[in-house]
Amino acid sequence: MSRLLRAVALCLVCRAAFGAGEELTQFSAGDLQLTVRRSAQGVAVYSLVDSRQAQELLAQGPRPLFTLALRQGGSTSEAVLDSDQGWRQCVVTQAGTGLELRWSEPADESLAGISVRAAATSEAGASALHWKLYVENRSTNRSLWRVVFPQLALAGPGANAAVLFPRGPGEVQRGVWERPFNYHGNYPDGGCTMQFMAAYGGGESPRGLYVATHDPWGSTKDLVLQSDSGTRSLRLSFEHPVPNMGLAGNSFALEGEAVWRLLRGDWFDAATIYRSWAQREAKWWPLLGRDGRPDTPRWMRELNAWTIAGGAPGECVRAVKEFRAFLGVPLGFHWYNWHQIPFDNDYPHYFPAKGGFAQGVAELESAGVFPMPYINGRLWDSHDRGTEDFEFSKLALAGVTRQADGTPCLESYGSKETNGQPVRLGVMCPSSPLWQNTVSNLVWRLVRECKTSGVYIDQVAAAAPKLCMDPTHGHPLGGGHWWTEGYWKMLEDIRSAMPREAILTTECNSEPFIRWFDGYLTWHWQHDGQVPAFPAIYGGAIQMFGRAYRGGATRDLALRMKAGQQLVFGEQLGWLDPGVVKQADNAQFFRQLAQMRSKFSRYFFAGEMARPPVLLGDVPKVKADWQWSGEWWVTTDAVLTGAWRLPAEGRLLLLFVNVSDAPVTASIRPAAGWGLPAGPVRCEMTSGASMAATAAPGVPEKPATFGPRQAQVWELRW
Q1: What percentage of the chain carries pLDDT values higher than 70?
Q2: Which of 17, 150, 299, 560 falls between 20 and 30 A from 606, CA-CA?
């Protein structure tokens, strides 16, 4: 009898004998049916079935539900305990909507004092299991170092199967069960921005599994995907560095809960599940009103385009003003190298500014430009006055993060000292009062003395937390959520003393800092297969802006692809060099999109993303080298689509951007969840070529033609 048939049979029997000394227990949550196998040595996940589809979700060979890694004293060698072996006592208890699993008495006597309890709660209506995990460590010489939980090995969920993972805005890769594939995300950072993954089949009605940790604190963790083409399996796991790692007797309790939920849909449906949780429980979810975030200045919510340049005012102000005049809409200006020190060198001694900086800020603001200078939010140069150790050792070193061996965490980014040696920058601990005050004072000087429109604090939502092991810092050693809390305190103090009309932004888009920033620089959204899962969750909660625009033989097409994707993803456009005005075709295309976004900007700051429309017909693909890291090919549809809505106002915006050089004709299939009424709907279509609008009753049913290098917007009202 196959494993699937055995599991289905267990739907009728709560417990069944399975081999000498083994026992199967089945536990249901709606259509999701879990079977665990208890043996003499442990408990394993034996089966996970979608009963409605009679589909086994797990690959052959059960995976342990958890793995524990422990160390002794100052040793780096690890002892490992899995859920399915190495235990003398295991108990499985089922009662009502709850399932409890207990492990105690490790067979290895050196691990005495370790016990584990896992508790699953059934949510039948959602076909979901909600897990808690507790590891008690009563050992006097062993430290719990890492906990891997949950972990599953999934079988391919059907033809053209896909996996969604949280790199950048979210990324979908297909066919990973048949080819080598690895993803390792260090949450929270720019490569791992959210805490969920999903696997689902292709076709008109995709089905699969949503796997997440719903951790409202944003604790440090690794999300891992690894395929095995030989067994056609995909392993999903969440790895948690344990608080107070290195100290004997430390225990672990999973923050929030782990969730396994049947997915009836695709990446958008998975994002909708996560959004619903984040709105209710995530500590970083901001207050939202009818007009979006009331704590973000109106000018930032309504901003539509950005430029990047740097240097003294004489080197950049004129070009930025010319770009603003060309676009015809207000412009954000990300101002680098406004300081006299070199870039990535002598941090954090940014002052004095280059001559005329404050006057340049005033001149730009009077021209409808919002200047936002750069500072770094993590780094202190170890030789912070040229080649001299000025204040690093005597002042900063005590607040630098430290590794397990006690050495300070230092990083290099390619910058050089005057003697040719690499600049080595200490990664500051965000819990350090010195660092919190240093960053706060820099921001306050810029917005108060120099009157800048805001400040960009680099790396906060980009770089993964350091597992700081300095016991003098007052935070738990290694893992936990002290890293996010340290930044929360710093940023809360800054915001409370900032002028109301000033903004804070940072690099990349890891989620736990949203409430304390007004904008995320999404310059790294550059991957083939990326989807707007992050905007689907956080659209309106924070403004996303900027892509890295680069050169190469396909520069022009890459620019159109990026700008078009920015528009449909809901990002503020650009982060372009102001010199783009000299590239006539590129400049005109970008201006078209900026003006189109300006006309409909309310959808992006006061609304929410809806499911993007699907085009029916022969829609070609385009491919360009985006040059993110060397040669970097990205393929998209020639016509990019998006949808945003204002549900309380009965309005829906459909966006189409043809980035190719040829017209494309296709039909539109209305998507579930758009909220269209049964009654009359009025459609107003705006063409980016002329910005002229034409009215039509309802969603056009006939094929529409999208002109080359043109944006088209359909606004539906009822």
Answers
A1: 97
A2: 560
